[in-house]
Amino acid sequence: MDQISTFGASRYAVRDLQLFRDADDPGVVAALAPCAVIKVAAGARVEDGLRARLYIVLSGSLEVAPDAHSVDDSGTTRVLPGESVGEQAVLDDAVNLAAMTALEDCELLVIEPELVWQLIDRSNGLARNLLRLLSFRVRAANAQLKRRQKLGEFYRQLSLNDGLTGLYNRAWLNEMLPKLAMRARQDGSPLSIVMVDLDHFKRFNDTHGHIAGDAALSSAAGVIRDSLRPSDFAVRYGGEELMAVLPDTPLGLAEMVAERLAERLRTAMVFPDMRLPLPHVTGSFGVATLAAGDDEHALMAAADAALYRAKQAGRDRVSV
Ligand SMILES: Nc1nc2c(ncn2[C@@H]2O[C@H](COP(=O)(O)OP(=O)(O)OP(=O)(O)O)[C@@H](O)[C@H]2O)c(=O)[nH]1
């Protein structure tokens, strides 16, 4: 990163610099003449020290990562001849955290911050160009932020869904059931749940293999998902334990929903592949409704107790 010349003695002209477009009056040209032109070899970092400076690429190209501490390289920009980097750090007098690396041998014009301010005072054209550039940068940063938010939301959704069945998972239940219970208490609306435990599933796995077991689980999950209203939720909260969460649903209606699920499960097909039809699986169902003054733990315990009764009574049935 050696100084090889001054701008005035170099082969470059002020009109080629984007920031100085329509702002190349003789005063500006004279002020820029003593500024350093440096050479940076391909692959080398532009070492800015602790002082922000304005750099304008005269030849070659730079890659700029927004923050030298950032680990991901999404959001890096390529700065081409005539374009500048570092103007924001100069304006707010901050240390330039951007990591600048030469993509090929480069020549850069270096403008010290004091001179940038003097030039802004002197040239309306430069001030206008700077404002335009900053406005463009703000828009680009906002767009990137939006993209990241969307990506974050995508991964959040992913973390709340079960990979095998696509149903909501235990993390979802832990986050959402307390909220649904609180809303039900506040609104005075009934909240019911139906716990489903597949019957003799260990035997099914042992007889037909784990892959067939996975297919049976997916089939059962599909039955639940496809049988509910859009406002209900289907959850896989354990290995072979599924649940329907039914807001605004009193106990009697929840029991009917459970009966419908039991019936559909009895007849649902399980196909791990097209050559091997498998026996149907059945489930035991425990239904409960949030009682006045109770919380989600009491609701889960009530449904669990009902499920236990369904198992004890011979499985493949609904208990309240
Ligand atoms: N294939 C498959 N099996 C699972 C999965 N998660 C849990 N299981 C199996 O589910 C079985 C549950 O067995 P148990 O809890 O003993 O109950 P069960 O055999 O269904 O008997 P009952 O509940 O009393 O009717 C175990 O063998 C688990 O390995 C899964 O993701 N895929």
UniProtKB/TrEMBL annotation:
Residues 54-137 form the Cyclic nucleotide-binding domain. Pfam families: cNMP_binding, GGDEF. It is an enzyme of class 2 (transferase). It catalyses: 2 GTP = 3',3'-c-di-GMP + 2 diphosphate. Its EC number is 2.7.7.65. Residues 189-320 form the GGDEF domain. InterPro entries: cNMP-bd_dom, cNMP-bd_dom_sf, Diguanylate_Cyclase, GGDEF_dom, Nucleotide_cyclase, Rev_trsase/Diguanyl_cyclase, RmlC-like_jellyroll. This is diguanylate cyclase. It comes from Massilia phyllostachyos.
